[in-house]
Amino acid sequence: MANRRYFAFAAVLGLAVVAAASSCSLNTQGELDGPLGPDSSVGGSGGTTPDAPGKDVSKEGDALQDKGSDTPDVKYEDSPKEAGCFPGTKPCNGTCVKTELVEYGCAQDTCTPCAMANAQPKCSNEKCVIDVCVGRFKDCNGNPDDGCETPIDTLENCKDCGTPCVLANTSAECSDGVNCKVAVCVSGWADCDGIANNGCETFISGDVNNCGACAHVCTPPTVNDTMKCDKGVCKIDICASGTADCDNDNVCEVNTQTDVNNCGVCGKVCAKPNAINVCVGGVCQMTGCVAPYGDCDGNPANGCETNLNTSPTNCGSCAAVCKSTHGKNPACDSGLCTLTCDNGWENCNGPQPGNDPKNDGCEINVGADPTQCGACAKPCSTANGTNATCTAGKCALTCNSGYADCDGPASGATSNGCEISIASDPGNCGSCYFACNGTNGTPTCSGGACGITCNGGYTNCDGNVSNGCEINTGGDVAHCGSCTKVCNSNNGTATCNSGSCGINCQSGWGNCDGNVDNGCETNTNTTVSNCGSCGNACSSNHGTPACSGGACSISCLGGWGNCDNNVGNGCESDLQNDPAHCSNCTTSCNTPNATPKCTAGVCGIQSCNAGRADCDGTFATGCEINTNTDPLHCGNCATICSNVNGTPSCSSGNCAISCNSGYANCDGLASTGCEVATTNDPLHCGSCNPCPTGGATPHGTRTCTGTTCGFNCDPGWANCSSLNDGCETDLATTAHCGTCTTVCSGMNAVWACPGGAGCAVSSCVAPYGNCDSDSSNGCETNLNTSNTHCGNCTTDCTTNNKHCDGAGNCVP
């Protein structure tokens, strides 16, 4: 059946091809134009052929085309005949297209586009093959079915298939699929040459030229030292001869030829006991001993073995032996010889070094030597005597005339000789131990006879020195001041004090003339000039005084009074002029806020207190008005503070006023009150100050409403700044178009505000246009790219099946 359809269709197709051969071609999409194109009917307008009576061939062809992808793929050998397509073409979706087009699958038997992962496909021998890989991918397995399947920015395939990214001593990375480079070096290694393909080539843990870091060279402290790199740290390897790094701080800091703590080698200490140690040429030696030691055996191996402070055979120096003459137990103490002396002998030279000539033991017999009798450096004295001797350590001598050895032979080796002058010593006057009496005085001895010098206030009234100065003339009323003075006791009891007589008077009597020789001569119970006591004279001030029983009294003169009941000041009150006692002692001129006065016994006001005034002229009310605060009498009795449009007050005598709401005291005068209304006057709006004008009120008129300043702006102007600068804003500008807040800007346009009526597009910013003539969205159209407004608002590319190329030109 298929063969019959083929031959019938071929006959018809042959006629059609012959008839239309001159006008058939392929368009740019690979589709067939002309009579064999998708709009042509095989066999002309009739759609039927005489070779197929009763059968509409055109409909059968249409049916083949309509099947499209819903029908089995048409084989190549059937396509030119049954689908109406030329060889090298194929039907896809009702259109004849080139066979080898990637968008139609390249092969005759498919219309499915070539699709390859990570690749740009192409057709080759009716097969989809890779034209070029996209991005960082390559076709490493040679199979186009899976496209460019391999990423070439991995460590396994870096830059190309099968090229691994492996570098020495590092964790490598493939950067951008192009370069294999060092990411992180293995610990102890570094990329010092900057060459990627040899990785981290430098061992910085052991390289003295790159120790711990690239180019960090281990430099020896001296030219003779050798360095090493140990785990990235520079260290001394070998020190120069005669030096050593003893503290491991990478410096050959020790001279082993001279260092006593590191002599020859580190840690060898020169430490001969008690010696001054030195290191010479790396060998320990000693140059002397440390006090108090000495090298007495001459053996340097044991250092300075002898303590010269304690050795009795080497005391102070070697071979200096402590002697024991007239003694025993010789010893060495702090380098000085000591010993215990035999009885009667002493080492008067004192401790001496063993090699001193004075190291002679206990050299002095202190039992018989008068120069050191009983002890060293204690000679027998020959004071006031002769023939000094020392026996068993005791001194003896013969005294000169007038002297005696009263304390007996001296004990020990020291002696004071004949120490007492019995011719002049009051404690040993004439003989040892006879003491002169010194009662209340100082005893004396002259020629072996006693005398006395009395203390102050005492006298030897009986002339007997044996009882001393027996009379106290400083306190004895029978011998007051002298042996013969007796004190007077008239009307009292006599006293003697420091040799002067005194008297304690009986009650009612007084020694008012101060003369103790006549006793208490004055009767103080009756004497007006000494009433009750001496010198207490009764006052005669404005009256006549009297004294009775030792108490004063007084009779006052007319116009005077003893108002304080104190007779000591007499009749002290002037009853004619004293406001405290006006006309009598009980009347006091007291009145409020004033200083009173008394005139001829009548009370009045002398003066008012500060800030007060006597405005009613009445004494009883005093200075009743506070002129500091009373607004009806402010500063004085006659001044009344104004209450015009306010509440008056008075402060410190000055009028003030608190204005009623809507009024102000603009002239500053309290006397005129609150003379200005501030509710509707622009010159005094809310206060005395005028509404601010900034010099003038541009484009408007100032107003005052209530207490608030305002503006009435001229048409087309507004106060947009909310400042007191008038109606400063022109509402016909693009910054304030019609209102303060309307701004004409943006949307690809150059704006205007004609007459302040609203924003309007003045012109557009290239390449835009206001194609809808609506200013609200500005220049909304891009004339470079709009297919319906290409280059200008009137050119529509779509009417000619064209588009706008991005530069304002219609192109196919």
Q: How far from one another are the termini? A: 46 Å
Order of neighbouring strands in the sheet with most strands: 1-2
What is the number of helical segments per DSSP (H or I, 4+ residues)?
3
Structural class: mainly beta
Instruction: Give the integer mean of the pLDDT values.
Output: 83
Largest sheet, in brief, is: 2 strands, antiparallel
Low-confidence stretches: 1-82
Please characterize this protein's 3D structure.
This protein is mainly beta. Among the domains are: 2-113, no CATH class; 256-300, no CATH class; 646-737, no CATH class; 749-811, no CATH class. Helices cover 4% and strands 28% of the residues. The protein contains 3 helices and 60 strands. The strands form 30 sheets. Strands 1-2 form a two-stranded antiparallel sheet. Strands 3-4 form a two-stranded antiparallel ribbon. A two-stranded antiparallel sheet has the order 5-6. A hairpin with a 5-residue loop joins strand 59 (803-804) and strand 60. 26% of the residues are buried. Residues 1-82 have low confidence and may be disordered.
